[in-house]
Amino acid sequence: MARVPELNVSVQVSPLDPKLPQLVRLCDPGYVAAMLAAASAGAPGTAYRVHTIRYRPGERHVLRYESAQAAPRRALFAKLSKRDADVSRAFRVATHVADCLDASGGTARALRPLACVEGDSVLVFPEVRGRPLSEALRTGAGGVTGHLEAAARALRALHSTPVRLGETLAHRDFVTDVEAVRRASEHISALRPRTGARIDETLERARALYDGLPSESPTFTHGDFKAEHVWASSGHVMLLDFGTCASGDPALDVGKFLADLHWWSWGSGQRSTRLRTAFLAAYGCSADGGRGRLLRAAVYEALFLAMFAAHRLPIHRPGWAERTAALVRRAAKGLDELS
Length: 339
Hints:
Keywords: Transferase. This is Aminoglycoside phosphotransferase family protein. The protein is of the alpha+beta class. The chain folds into two domains: 2-126; 131-336, Aminoglycoside phosphotransferase (APH), C-terminal lobe (Aminoglycoside 3'-phosphotransferase, Chain: A, domain 2), CATH 3.90.1200. It has helices at 23-26, 29-38, 87-104, 133-139, 144-160, 174-184, 186-191, 193-211, 251-264, 270-283, 290-311, 320-336; strands at residues 2-4, 9-11, 48-56, 60-67, 76-80, 108-110, 115-117, 122-126, 131-132, 219-221, 230-233, 236-239, 246-248. It has a five-stranded antiparallel sheet, with helices on both faces. Strand 1 and strand 2 (9-11) form a beta hairpin. Helix 5 (144-160) runs parallel beside helix 10 (270-283) and helix 11 runs antiparallel to helix 12 (320-336). It is globular. The protein starts with a strand and ends with a helix. The mean pLDDT is 90.
């Protein structure tokens, strides 16, 4: 890694990452073949091509392993974590989710990990064929409502299952998410003070409203339930990415998905309303948590709309300021409707 102090810039060349030292060997096709064979995730003697899918320096890395053999085989994906991460816990959680959905009797499944290689802090997953629900929402493809309903029923099944993982699940609360939005939006406050002030006001209103709503016992939660993590595949939907599962308020998952629906169907008018109604009807907010869960989900929805304004809108894109302000106004409007 090189530093350019006068520009306050660091230059890091992949796969050399001080916090992910295993990345070097996990990009070596020879090492990969031996590792996968030892973990019973790949056939002995198979050669692999290695491709980078997603990389956040010092945080996480996703690699794609494609067979270099003439006979086509499904690719494998390696999800790396930092050395201090508990990958065995992540393996247990992902397996638990897959078991729960298999037992639910619905059409949704969870992506089951093939192997956990603790020495390399990596989980190995099979390839999923299909496309993410986010793409179908963005393009207005047909059949989306059925996939939304299946995803909603799968989420209900996860929220209804007993939490049997004990101490392996962290607890997540509303205040933690409020502070995460506050930190994420600091650049907005610096660049657009009026919009930043409105975010601060929205966060304070959200906290006050949430505290005044009926609560319920924590359940198993996905933690990052969004359309990108729901894939339409071979006549069913597949849920992905269980790295943020926690014990918490089930309204978090419902609210984040509603905010994500707004994001992907922004400007679609009645279609957006129909999709939202279909999701909530299939989830069944009238059961279990009842109206209280639905109201708390609306507060979470506002919270995540503010988060999307901070995380999903690149500053360099034309119209950044206007779109950011529009998302923040939509978040505030959602809270107005609860007041």
